[in-house]
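Sample pair:
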Amino acid sequence: MKYYTGTLAELQEKASLASTKQVLVGIDGFVDMIVHPVDQRSGPGDQFQAIPTISDFAKRIASAAGKSANIELAPVVEKLGGNGPLMANAQSAHGIKVRYLGALGREDIHPVFQEFAARTQAISIADPGVTYAAEFTDGKIMFGSMASLDSITYQQLCQLPGEASLIEIFDQADQIAMVNWTMIPYLTDVFKCFLSKILPACSKDKARSFFFDLADPEKRSNADILEVLGIFSEFEAFGKVTLGLNLREAEKVDALLGFEPLPNTPENLQAMARRIRHKLELDTVVVHPVTGAACATPEGSAYAAGPFCNKPKITTGAGDHFNAGFATARLIGLSPAAALTVAVATSGYYVRTAESPSLEALAEFINTW
């Protein structure tokens, strides 16, 4: 409870700084179809029982082996999605000035992104992917169609906003967040061009920071993952780098770096974050399982328990809201422990309400959870 009190004091002192900060977020974009796989239907519309857990869903699929099956995906809502838009939306709600660069529609902005695009002065570079997010009580499974993201290349960026415009928007940003590396095949090459062409042309007197998120790299090769981790380290020449990892991603990265696995405890989460940070020579590594989060920074490591929700209203985007909370908190100068508390609270507020909180609403939520 002590670090909750400390967080509220830090927020009261520094929340007003949010409106003075500008961030650039990218670089994906998805139309999210939130669905509930149907177990038994008793009538039209919402008259059905959903398959409750991922294990139950797996059994239903396995029972169709050698036969066939028809599983209904009942729609819940169609909304903007993608790691970048969800993170950008949350930081915008915090009061940060957000500029977006990503896949919101090639010829025209897709309807689910129109208000978001206007608010963030978005530069759209490709058509969005489409995700069917099947939600269960113990997690979610994302079924994605993302061929349009193959067109996100540095050449494409130079044809659309243009290299001069890229330099300008990078130069204006206090923080640059580039997320969902896994889903964008040429993003490693794009990062290399940012390092060689864009950032060297930016002003040297700005205290710039970076935030990166892999987004479930299971389908990418170990060599690809190790390559991009090394590239994240190169961004340290231009500002402080934070690498955000959920627990599964952290365990994957930890193993690739040659470390032995650790049981999931608050102390071990901090140890894992510390050794990943040290090995990759990054400013900050943050690891967030469902029940809390840990980080390692130059100021030391910290852990914060989260406001776990047994019956969330929505889970798709919870990790992106965590990232937004942590990135915003560090951008306005909060301590590692306070930043973790803001991060888990931003995620916790979102899964309960399906809305992104302001910093004022967040302080009230922290005060009452």
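The CA atoms of residues 86 and 320 lie 6 Å apart.
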